[in-house]
Amino acid sequence: MNEAQVLAPSTRPASPTGAVRWCVDHVIDGLERSSARRFTVLSPIDERPIAEVAAGQAPDVDAAVDAARRAFPAWAALGPQGRAPLLNAFAQRVRSCLDELAATETLDNGSLLAANRARMVPRAAENIAYFARHALTLHKDVGSTPETIDEVLYDPAGVVGIIVPWNAPIMLSTWRLGPALAGGNTVVLKPAEWAPLTSGLLARLALEAGIPPGVFNVVQGLGETAGAALASHPGLARLAFTGSVETARLVGRAAAANIVPCSFELGGKSPLIVFEDADLDDAVKVAVQQYANAGQVCLAGTRLLVAAPIARRFAQRFQELASSLVVGDPRELGCQVGPLITRQHLERVEGFVERARLAGARCLIGGYRHEAGPLHFAPTLMTDVEQDMEIVQNEVFGPVLTLQTFDSEEHAIELANGTRYGLAASVFSTDPERCGRVSSRLVAGTVWVNCFYVRNLAAPFGGSRHSGVGREGGEFSFDFYCDVKTVQTRRAPG
Ligand code: NAD
Fold it and tell me: pLDDT tens-digit profile of 176-227?
């Protein structure tokens, strides 16, 4: 998206259920504020325009950071006990607005309505409630010395900037928002321009729950303007960025000028390793699940690494199961694979597949646009790929998997670790010792053994190598969002 697509202001439409009015402007200091410039949001379902959203510029970001800075002392002074009831009320508002949030997210980014209702919106509420609870119990026991009593305090840090992508906005923004607010900070959120609509609703729900104006602000807009202005703002105490490696380089450089600590959750090219002793049905089922959200999932196990002796059987079963996937309208209950986010992204995904074909890869299934809609791409599995091919090395962020075989445990680990990424990995084997050995040698922030996408909010989450910087989850989140302080008090003599 670029400035040429910035349009004139227009009306504010209602959510798909008609029950709430969307918020298509910024939310700054508790008020909805318009911008002269707007950009048009198209639904990936049919490419129809669904909203014209405020295109924030640097002065809007300044106003939001200023509001957050003014709201900070009172919010911080409430302490975890004072903030918890307000955050719980916020989480409850999110739960009670499930229909509107889920339907808006689906229309906005093409994700499955059923998944948004069953998982994403409930998880958004839990992201807020969990960290509010956790903040009540924050402590770190570093052990006192014979001379001093040592305490570790988690002080609120200030204004936190949050920048999120379009593939799961409600879940990803609350994953950062929850601990940032629970830790006593105030927030300026910049959603992605390709899927901005649930963010404004969230800000309004927070206000309805009694969270004071200015504590949670939203600035809408394009990455290169609003995003860049937020990343380079000297008023931030922290910056939490979720997105691509390429943007992270720009964001990191901008934040470094102000010595603002960053947490980066970035792309992935995760391996899914299937050993010859694995429960094959289980492994195939999980492998086919990697097409969830049309493959637009950072954690997706897009590189299937299968032991050579079972590769033919695996591929056959995979093909059978994948051919039964329902590709279609994400609003329909039975749909399993929806559209890609934009035409530009569809062409990008297509380009990866075409270049892989030219380099000698073969599509065992898929490899073409799907007739279900203008932005649908068929679930694709590419074989005959080499480790150094672009399709194996780079994140496609679409419904495109590759299949490689390995001859030994050592070979599997070498292939698995052989990219610049390190977000997640899955291992399928019925041998617990092998699972332990392999897990310990994989370069990944999360390893799932005989399972996939199990998330425990207390566990650290993040990426190694180019998949990210830092870990969040449980206490790890507060290590980032708070100023951790040691207080050492000399013991009274005698
Ligand atoms: P992106 O990097 O293009 O954009 C992410 C956000 O950054 C958007 O809000 C965008 O407006 C903003 N932005 C763009 N340019 C900017 C700039 N110069 N300064 C500041 N902000 C700017 O990523 P995307 O296409 O929206 O999302 C897809 C990527 O996100 C994939 O690589 C995916 O793997 C990754 N992702 C990672 C995780 C994780 O937890 N590790 C989760 C979801 C998505």
Answer: 999 999 999 999 999 999 999 999 999 999 999 999 999 999 999 999 999 9
- Residue 10 pLDDT level (bands cut at 50, 70, 90): very low
Please tell me which residue in 97, 298, 335, 435 is annotated as part of the active site.
Answer: 298
Structure tokens at 382: 């590419």
Q: Extract the tokens encoding 44.
A: 């990936």
Residue to substitute in 1, 2, 108, 167 for testing ligand 1 pocket (most ligand atoms within 8 angstroms of CB): 167
* Cα 165 to ligand 1 centroid, rounded to whole Å: 4
Q: Considering the entire predicted model, what is its pTM? A: 0.96
Residues with CB under 6 A from ligand 1: 163-167, 172, 190, 192-193, 223-224, 227-228, 231, 242-244, 247, 250-251, 265-268, 298, 395, 397, 423, 463, 468
Mean pLDDT computed over 250-258: 98
Q: What are phi and psi of 83, to 5 degrees?
A: -80, -30
List, in sequence order, every beta strand (DSSP E) within 318-443. Answer: 362-365, 380-383, 400-406, 424-428
Give the residue, out of 39, 57, 163, with the most ligand 1 atoms within 8 A of its beta carbon, to mutate for a pocket test: 163
Q: Which residue has the tokens 């969307």?
A: 22
User: Six-digit token pair at 32?
Assistant: 């909805």
The CA-CA-CA angle for residues 45, 378, 119, to 5°, reads 55
To the query of whether residue 105 is one of the catalytic residues in this protein, the response is no
Beta strand residue intervals within 290-379, DSSP E: 303-307, 362-365
Ligand 1 centre to CA of 326 (Å) is: 28
- Expressed in percent and rounded to 5, the helix, strand and coil fractions of the chain are 40, 20, 40
Active site residue 298: yes
Question: What is the per-residue pLDDT for 11?
Answer: 42
CA distance 265 to 250: 14
Q: Do residues 334 and 159 make contact, with C-beta atoms less than 8 angstroms apart?
A: no
Q: Supply φ then ψ for residue 303, to 5 degrees.
A: -110, 105
Task: Determine how many CB atoms are found less than 10 A away from the CB of residue 8.
Answer: 8
Q: What ranges in 78-140 are assigned the alpha helix state H?
A: 79-96, 98-109, 113-115, 121-135
- Ligand 1 atom with least separation from CA of 461: 40
